[in-house]
Amino acid sequence: MPRRTRLFIDKLSFTLDVEEIHKASVIRAFEVEEFDRVVERISNFSSGLLKQYQRAYKFAITADHDVTFQIEPRVERGRNSEHASVRRRFLRVEWNPSKSRSAGRESNQMLFALFERCLPSYSVERLLQTMNLTRIDLAFDVHGVSIDSLEVCASPLRKMNTRRTFEPDGRISSMEFGKPTSDRYLLVYNKTLERHLRTQPISTAGRPYIARRIPCTRFELRLHDLGGIDNLFTQSNPFEIFTVRSIGTIGLDASDHESAFFHDACLRRGPYAALSCITNRRTRTHYSLAVRESEPPPWWEPSSIWGELQEAVVAALS
Fold it and tell me: Partner of 67 for a Cys bridge, out of 30, 59, 224, 295, CB 3.0 to 4.6 A?
């Protein structure tokens, strides 16, 4: 039986302004934390964290996950002006709340204690009022559902780039809608395969092992440059842009052996692999339309998913 998890925040990044009189004290506070080996200063410019900021630190919130802090933005010069201008806020923070939550409430408490030691007049309420959201990844997993059994598409009213990635055996491994840097970007991927490839090399020999595992599909919606956190709650539901259909509900004539073979191929290899094997253009169009007219799965309810947003934010920041 398919089971959808509650909505959660997979990644969160935000910037904060610091008053001029407090900037030096914030820098000194992080230097003290570095001396006490609470945080580790990043000196490797190739990491990318020092491209736009002069200082960067990482705080190990779990054994395999760090919170990154970028401090004191580098000065940029305007194209039409000889005067230097700083365009970025003084402090940038990025971390994965879902990983810290999975390690227990103590992980978040350690992070918030660090905020309290380093930031002037810190409180969760003040943080929520002053943070500028630069990126938030809203995600959920569907256990017991293979990505091969789904047809996902964006509304034709939204012009979004679409890209699908396939495995060597023709199975689909991910679907992308939009660009990773655009204001809205949806990534749907085979979470079971992704977990396996973290520790195992990519090889065709490992695919049968993956096929025997309980399938899991991850939906990850990335939102960029939202501004204040209030804008997150007042915007329209971004999940409503997308349509999800279940291949198992394709309305084809079961008495037609070709239709039956196509249906079985969809369930085994996914609709895109099955369609790629049909050489006749008219037949391929007929089956493609049948896939697009299949029914949405019961767990795909955009209004219910979006209704879990406040719960997800509270879980990430508590």
Answer: 59
Query: Which range has the top average pLDDT, 83-87, 107-111, 134-138, 275-279?
Result: 134-138
Phi and psi based region of residue 213 (left: phi greater than 0; alpha: psi -120 to 50; beta: remaining): beta
Strand, coil or helix: 177: strand
Going by their DSSP bridges, the two strands 132-143 and 8-16 should be labelled as antiparallel
What stretches of the chain show up as alpha helix (H) in DSSP?
20-35, 97-102, 105-118, 124-130, 191-199, 207-212, 230-234, 257-269, 271-276, 281-292, 302-306, 309-316
* 18-27, 38-47, 126-135, 269-278: segment of lowest average pLDDT: 269-278
pTM over 0.90: no
Residue 20's Cβ-count burial label (10 Å; 0-12, 13-18, 19+) is exposed
Helix-helix angle 105-118:20-35, to 10 degrees: 130
Element (H, E) at 242: strand 242-246
Q: How far, in Å, are 138, 156, 281 from residue 284 at the CA level?
A: 35, 21, 5
- Chain centroid to CA 171: 22
- pLDDT (mean) for 101-109: 74
Find the range with the poorest average confidence among 87-91, 132-136, 203-207, 258-262.
203-207
DSSP string, 108-173: HHHHHHHHHHHSTT--HHHHHHH-EEEEEEEEEEEET--GGGEEEEE-TTS---EEEEE-TTS-EE
Residue 81 has pLDDT above 50, yes or no: no
Joined tokens for residue 308: 């879990």
Q: Who contacts 202 (Cβ-Cβ below 8 Å, separation ≥6)?
A: none
Per residue in 16-45, pLDDT (tens digit) is 999 999 999 999 999 999 989 999 999 888
CA distances from 204 to 4, 215, 266 (A): 29, 18, 20
